[in-house]
């Protein structure tokens, strides 16, 4: 009995050590593996349909599914990232050369403000208008520098991005082809009971679909509408602003209004009433209502996460892992809630 216990403990130790070692080896390309799993889940209905139409030819069905992912996701995302990097660099260069002169813009805003607004600013103990102007100019400069540095990182990491993309597509092919067998193997090897394993795996699928399919579609629509509106009114950094609106739309209680509202207020204050009214109308009547209209049918209750948990886990995930964190953060939070729910039910 004692010998059997030692053997079991040794086996568990070996499994843990080899698992940690594999994670350590794969860690530089975890993003490629992560998005391969995500795309395999999202495009699984298409792959199942192709495999059925092709009479069970798994290799051909997997190849066609990967090509569909390339044309629907990879190529558009690569083009947008390239254009975003160029526009972010242009904005940074423009701000660095003081074109437009932010101080002059602030003076123009101050001259257009009614006296009661200036009195209210003074009453709020925010400091003099010159101090507020200095802070805003400094903030805009720092923000532009940060955006440009991120853009340069994207350019410098082109080789690593290409390798990660290759890893993602390679893994994706085998996930399409052998996905069912892999899921069965994981279920069989899981130390949890079959119902618990199914519950956790279903939670993983639900959170991926709710986070990526629902939230990203909503954010893409909001960012696109905002970017097109900015382009129509003549804002040069329309793409950059649209992407920022889309990213902010991923966060509950934050939203795209943090971008379009300041622009609308600025144009209204400086006398460009038509531009201000157009941005304000689109922001209030279109962008702000899309979330309420599309979130219930696209996301529903699949993630079963409160908004405050989604907000904190998303922000924490992004701060720790970059843009991959907007999926990983809520996923970890969902696993935490699912595991503790199972533990509570067992007790």
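^ structure tokens above, recovered residues below v
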């Amino acid at each position: 009995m004692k010998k059997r216990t030692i053997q079991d403990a040794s086996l568990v130790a070996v499994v843990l050590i080899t698992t940690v070692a594999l994670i350590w080896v794969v860690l530089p390309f975890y993003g490629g593996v992560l998005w391969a799993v995500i795309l395999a889940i999202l495009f699984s209905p298409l792959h199942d349909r192709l495999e059925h139409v092709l009479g069970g030819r798994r290799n051909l069905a997997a190849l066609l599914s990967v090509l569909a992912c390339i044309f629907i996701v990879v190529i558009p995302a690569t083009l947008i990232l390239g254009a975003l990097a160029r526009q972010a660099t242009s904005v940074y260069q423009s701000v660095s050369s003081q074109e437009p002169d932010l101080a002059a813009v602030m003076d123009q805003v101050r001259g257009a403000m009614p006296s009661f607004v200036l009195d209210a600013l003074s009453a709020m103990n925010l400091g003099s208008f010159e101090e507020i102007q200095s802070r805003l100019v400094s903030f805009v400069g720092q923000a532009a520098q940060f955006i440009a540095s991120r853009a340069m990182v994207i350019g410098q990491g082109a080789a690593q991005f290409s390798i990660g993309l290759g890893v993602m597509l390679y893994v994706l092919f085998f996930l399409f082809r052998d996905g069912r067998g892999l899921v069965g193997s994981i279920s069989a090897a899981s130390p949890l009971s079959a119902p618990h394993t199914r519950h956790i795996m279903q939670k993983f699928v639900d959170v991926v679909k709710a986070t990526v399919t629902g939230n990203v579609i909503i954010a893409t629509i909001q960012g696109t509408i905002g970017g097109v509106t900015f382009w129509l009114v003549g804002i040069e950094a329309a793409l950059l602003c649209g992407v920022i609106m889309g990213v902010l739309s991923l966060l509950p209680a934050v939203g795209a209004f943090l971008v379009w509202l300041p622009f609308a207020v600025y144009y209204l204050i400086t006398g460009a009433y038509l531009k201000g009214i157009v941005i304000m109308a689109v922001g209030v009547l279109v962008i702000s209502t899309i979330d309420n209209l599309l979130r219930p049918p696209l996301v529903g209750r699949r993630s079963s996460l409160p908004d405050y948990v989604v907000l904190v886990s998303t922000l924490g995930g992004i701060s720790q892992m970059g843009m991959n964190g907007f999926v990983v953060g809520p996923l970890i939070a969902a696993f935490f809630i699912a595991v503790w729910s199972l533990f509570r039910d067992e007790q």
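DSSP finds 14 helices and no strands in the chain.
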